[in-house]
């Protein structure tokens, strides 16, 4: 199961013997740590249960894969060992990146902020836009924000487009691109 919370809880409670948990970052580095800091009465009731179930779930899992060394470090604190931990990167073809990076970089005097975050509320694209506007006001040279509109929540995506349309001073400097194929995405990262 991807993500220990809540997807790994179901196989845990069913005592599924061959359960493999895959952590992706947010779950181990943010969600799990949040369970230690309840703020409301509801959280004081729920968080100890979630924290305990999280820990028991990863202990019971047959194997745990993580996408970063930092996640593995946090899981070691729960497990006490590496016996069932494995680092599995998220399928990045490093040769594809290297081939693009070996080519010439497109020269520009414009500072470009590139955001490849999903167009969903949790990724705070509205905050990225606000931060860009503050940055641009203080910068003494041209700047632009390039945002990819993928995995879009349609309502949130429209909210972002409406927000940009109201930013008369910055509207021309914020570029929302459709989903990109791999070669174009790699070129955007390089640029």
What layout of secondary structure does this protein have?
Layout: H1 4-13, E1 20-22, H2 26-34, H3 41-60, E2 63-66, H4 69-79, E3 85-87, H5 94-102, E4 111-115, H6 125-138, E5 143-148, H7 154-165, E6 174-177, H8 182-190
Parallel strand pairs: 1-2, 2-3, 4-5, 5-6
Helix pairs in contact: 1-3, 5-8
Task: Describe the main β-sheet briefly.
Answer: 3 strands, parallel
The poorly predicted ranges are none
Distance between the termini: 36 Å
Form type: globular
Helices, by number, come to 8
Rounded radius of gyration (Å): 21 Å
User: From the helix content, strand content and strand pairing, which structural class follows?
Assistant: alpha/beta
- Secondary structure: number of strands: 6
**Widest β-sheet, arrangement of strands:** 1-2-3
> Which percent range fits the helix content?
40-55%
In terms of DSSP E residues, the strand content is 5-15%
Task: Tell me, rounded to a whole number, the average pLDDT.
Answer: 88
Order of helices and strands: HEHHEHEHEHEHEH
The oligomeric state of the chains shown is single chain
How is this structure best described in words?
With 191 residues, the chain is α/β, with parallel strands linked by helices. Helices cover 49% and strands 13% of the residues. It has helices at residues 4-13, 26-34, 41-60, 69-79, 94-102, 125-138, 154-165, 182-190; strands at 20-22, 63-66, 85-87, 111-115, 143-148, 174-177. Helix 6 (125-138) links the parallel strand 4 and strand 5 (143-148). The protein is globular and about 55 Å long. The two termini are 36 Å apart.
